[in-house]
Amino acid sequence: MSEVFLPRTKLLDLPRSGGGDLRAFVGWPEEPPPPEGWPVVYLLDGETYFAPMLAAARSLSHRPKTTGVAPALIVGIAPHEDETRDEREFRRCRDFTPPAPRELLPERPHGRPWGETGAAGRTLDWLEEAVKPLIEAKFPVDRSRQTLFGHSLGGLCALYAAFRAPERFQRYAASSPSIWFAERWILKAEAEFPARLRASPHPILLSLTVGSLEAEPPEHLRAGTDPYAHWVRKNRMVENLMEMGRRLAALDPEKLQVVQAVLEGENHPSAAFAALSRALRAALRPERALTS
Predict the structure, then answer these.
(1) At what angle do helices 237-249 and 227-235 cross, to 10 degrees?
(2) Cα dihedral across residues 198, 199, 204, 208: positive or negative
(3) Among the options 178, 207, 214, 266, which is catalytic?
(4) Structural domains in the chain plus CATH codes
(5) 110 is catalytic
(6) Catalytic residue among 152, 176, 178, 200
(7) Is 212 a catalytic residue?
(8) Distance between CA 154 and CA 98 in Å, rounded?
(9) What pTM did the predictor assign?
(10) Residue-wise pLDDT tens digits, 72-128
């Protein structure tokens, strides 16, 4: 382990067979861990969201009785080296999407090909079987308080994780999830979720957020025929999330709590940062006596 750019943070190399090398940014609280260990939040796209999530977690957990956020371990999964924009796009499309027929993939507004897709299951298995044991061997972790956070395609991956194996985490946070992917292929996993939820040994909480400005393209594109404007309208980001939230909220409230919000004034990129504090409050509510 080596020091990185913030106090009380480390870098861990995470070699992965068949999928390249990744790394984890790990940040821990100033406070000593409780006897049961720290809660832990795992972040997809850690190269983008680790630093703001860690800063938010540290600030909010300074007075947990006031903020409702307990001190926690933050783990951001990131590429081992700097990627070009195209490399990052291809990796995310591969690692964060559920398996779906290629013929269902829509034409993209920028005209670039999709590349490989459908490896979300492998990514989540690797997270469970390789990453978690490594983190738990190096840091005191409360395994009863684990959260997975993802945005956009990462949000889709977080949904797939909850639907496929809800027992692996206690909290899931899906920010602006790409429910539209492959003609909403994720709904097939959702249909199997109630049975898996009933079999889960513990209840889960699912936080769903989306930006209000994701319902329409930017104002300067609304009157034209720009391909991106058509893409945004077709994807129905806000409608898809709210419809899914209503369906999930109708399931057994003893096994599933759904927290959903449309973040006013936020677009697709900015919604991720607005969602971070909401995800922390959902994931890290003190469940034991804490002092402020």
Answers:
(1) 10
(2) negative
(3) 214
(4) 2-283 (3.40.50.1820)
(5) no
(6) 152
(7) no
(8) 11
(9) 0.93
(10) 999 999 987 778 888 888 999 999 999 999 999 988 887 788 899 999 999 999 999
